[in-house]
Specification:
Blueprint lengths: L1 H12 L1 H20 L15 E6 L4 H13 L1 E2 L6 H9 L5 E5 L15 E4 L4 H22 L4 H12 L17 H8 L1 H20 L2 H9 L4 H30 L1 H4 L5 H25 L3 H19 L10 H7 L3 H13 L6 H34 L1
Parallel strand pairs: 1-2, 1-3
Antiparallel strand pairs: 3-4
């Protein structure tokens, strides 16, 4: 019992980092799930800004610029009075004011044309209009330098404005009602690796201390019982992490999860990766000798495996060359099954085959980690 209390003290000492990772995980998961509300369809729209234009030049170029801005934004008619303009900007009746001075069109040839603009400080609307004006003026300079007349320049620019690009949004193929559950379970690998490795690896390295190990060997506790105590401690940690991780989405999104016929497959997939995380933690705790090295390796493994495997970036957006490498990682197979479950409504023979393949690959990786850890442990004992 004394040794078991020692394990619990080490776990209690590291609860702060556990709660920190859980907090980060919950915030990220809820934020991502919120993007999949029923009324949150993605749209690409041109932003319209309220502007005022004072054209004192009335040349061909200045008139073309005024027409261009009028076709995009809402142009309000104001008296060219500084007090009136300042008041309109203050009350946000307009966000941008353009004053085209006399002689503006003539100064185009020397590329010394200057526009007087006033905008509300700190608003992105001003930078947005700035970019549009700069684009227009760069086109004017290019055509004029190529020998086009002012009228031809405006005509060419108007032709360019009629050219549009076809934009296709990449849609997540998952079922809408299941996306929140799927997104939550998608981030579990990062939580499992960081928390399990962060605790169990530290426990292993703490109890591998030579003086502490000698005292334990001098006690009347057998090696078999010591291993059982360690196994019980690991089981308590992993069970607590697993129950909280899979219980939260079921409680938060019960309207989706309760009616989900394949929910148990999500749970099996998460359990399989929990075993993978335990194996990784055992390997890291066996191979590393200092707490700093454990933290560094845990961070490297968690971020590297999650980025390559598709935890942070959807697999359908990752290059095929990267996915070839990712197939050697358990996160790839976890996310592959998770995405397949997100696209399925009911059990099928194909789904069951994917389940068996992905779970099997994860367990193979866990077995490989344990074998390597045992080899390292044997080598250290011989030393």
């Amino acid at each position: 019992m004394t040794i078991f209390k020692g394990y619990m003290l080490v776990i209690k000492h590291n609860l702060g980092s556990v709660f920190l990772y859980f907090g980060i995980f919950i915030v990220i998961s809820i934020a991502n799930a919120s993007f999949y509300d029923d009324n949150n369809d993605a749209r690409i729209e041109t932003k319209t800004v309220s502007i005022a234009i004072f054209n004192e030049d009335n040349g061909v170029i200045s008139t073309g610029l005024e027409s261009y801005l009028t076709s995009i934004h809402v142009v309000k008619q104001l008296e060219n009075n500084e007090d009136i303009i300042q008041e309109a900007l203050y009350y946000r009746d307009i966000q941008y004011v353009i004053n085209i001075p006399q002689g503006f069109s003539e100064s185009i040839q020397t590329q010394e044309a200057i526009l007087e603009v006033t905008k509300v400080p700190g608003l992105s609307d001003g930078y947005y209009v700035d970019a549009q004006i700069n684009t227009y003026m760069n086109q004017v300079y290019a055509y004029r330098a190529a020998g086009f007349s002012e009228l031809q320049t405006i005509q060419k620019i108007e032709e360019l404005q009629t050219i549009s690009a076809d934009i296709h949004l990449v849609q997540d193929p998952s079922n809408r009602d299941d996306k929140k559950i799927k997104m939550w379970f998608s981030f579990l690998p990062y939580l499992f690796i960081t928390v399990i490795c962060g605790i169990i690896s530290i426990i292993l390295i703490t109890f591998r201390n030579k003086e502490l190990r000698k005292r334990m060997l001098c006690s009347n506790v057998s090696d078999k019982r010591l291993n059982l105590i360690a196994l019980l401690s690991f089981l308590i940690v992993s069970s607590g992490v697993y129950i909280v991780s899979v219980g939260l989405p079921i409680l938060m999104y019960h309207e989706y999860s309760i009616s989900q016929p394949i929910l148990y497959m999500y749970l099996i997939n998460a359990l399989a990766f929990l075993l993978v995380s335990l194996a990784i933690a055992y390997l890291v705790g066996t191979a590393m000798d200092t707490l700093n090295s454990i933290n560094s390796v845990t961070t490297l493994l968690s971020l590297g495996m999650c980025f390559l495997g598709g935890v942070f970036i959807p697999q359908y957006l990752i290059a095929e060359e990267v996915l070839v490498i990712a197939k050697f990682l358990p996160t790839y197979w976890y996310i592959l099954l998770n995405d397949t479950l997100g696209q399925s409504l009911n059990k099928s023979s194909e789904l069951m085959h994917t389940l068996g393949t992905c779970i099997g690959m994860q367990l193979v990786f866990a077995f490989a980690c344990i074998c390597i850890a045992l080899a390292i442990s044997k080598a250290k004992i011989q030393e």
